[in-house]
Structure formats: C-alpha cells, structure tokens
Amino acid sequence: MLALCLLIVSRVLLLRSTSFPSVALPAHSWNSITARVGRVIDGDTVELTDTRRVRLLGIDAPEISYDSTASDFFADESKSWLREQVDGKEVILQTGMPKTDKYGRMLSWIYLPDGTSINVQSVRSGMAKVLADFGLPEEIEPELRRAEAEARVRKLGIWSGRRR
Fold first, then answer.
1. pTM reported for the whole predicted model
2. In this structure, what is the dihedral angle of CA atoms 125, 133, 141, 5, given to the nearest 10 degrees?
3. Active site includes 105?
4. 125 and 150 in contact (C-beta within 8 Å)?
5. What average pLDDT score do residues 98-122 get?
6. Which among 23, 54, 59, 86 has the fewest CB atoms less than 10 Å away?
7. What pLDDT, in 10s, does the model give residues 60-103?
C-alpha cells in the first residue's frame, strides 16, 4: 500500500514538473452579490427587482417564443420550474468574466441562501442542458455533467421525449 502511494505521489510530482504549452483558460474571479428576483423571463433568464437581467451560466433552457412562432419543446415547463425556485426570493449571484453577454444580461451562477445551485438543479431536473459557451469552472463542471447524465437516464424534462 505504501509503495502504491509513493508511486502515485511521484507521478503527480513528475507531471507538475513537466512543461506544457500554456493554454488560455477562462478567468473565474468570482464576485458575489445578494439580490431579489423580480420575475422570471424564461428557463435561464431572470429579472431582478432593480430591473437588471441575469442569464444563468452553464445552462441552456428551451426558448420561449415572443412572436407567432412556436416555443421550443418544454419551454413553458422550464420557465415555470424556475419561477417556483426563485421568483420573489433573495438569491446569491456569483459572477465572473465575462460579466455580461451580448444582450447586456449579467452572466451568473445563482444560489439560494442555503447554498443550492439553481443552475445545477435546473439541469438535474431536466429543465435545461449544459452549455459551455462561457466556459465551465472546473469546480462546477463535473457536477453539471453528472446532473445532465442523470436527467437523461431518468428521462426527465427535455429528455422525456414526450411532446405536447
């Protein structure tokens, strides 16, 4: 057992001393703020009581149509789920870089005061899928990927295959 531990430690040290080309990774210097959700726009966007719009990072929920075209499958259910979770509630927003998207929405991870990640729970419930467009922090990505795999296997929400 001791020999195995020494082997593992020596391999880790060897890998750390090996030089690899530098890779530009997204910067995640977190800023946390507390705010109250005024309303839910759709399954991945909320508006705060101060009128700032927040786009949940790491997820992509079905789109709701605001014209004569049909909404995506499960869009209404995804919006309703998010409304039940956060509407009118105080939440903790963790923002990183970039701070906003091309529509001016704040990009954020949203947590309930008890530490529950709304982003992860949305994926776990089948209300959204993982979206890595803005980068996924290494401390959050594994949990998001597991949540999506679990929802797919359990055929929840967008993975249910049932159509209206």
1. 0.78
2. 160
3. yes
4. no
5. 95
6. 23
7. 999 988 877 888 889 999 999 999 999 999 999 999 778 999 99
Q: In sequence order, which residues have a C-beta less than 8 Å from that of residue 60 and are 6 or more positions away?
A: 44, 128, 129, 130, 131
Tens of pLDDT along 37-71?
999 999 999 999 999 999 999 999 999 888 778 88
Strand-pair partners of 129: 60
Q: Considering 63, 141, 143, 150, which one is annotated as catalytic?
A: 63
H/E element, 152: helix 141-154
Q: Which of 55, 77, 124, 148 is catalytic?
A: 55
63 is catalytic: yes
In a 13 Å sphere around the CA of 79, the CA atoms on its Cβ side amount to: 17
Determine the Cα angle at 124 with ends 117 and 146, to 5°: 95
Bridge partners for 9 per DSSP? none
Residues in the chain: 164
55 in active site: yes
Which residue matches tokens 């594994």?
Answer: 142
Indicate the pairing of strand 53-56 with strand 106-111. Answer: parallel
The catalytic position among 77, 105, 124, 148 is: 105
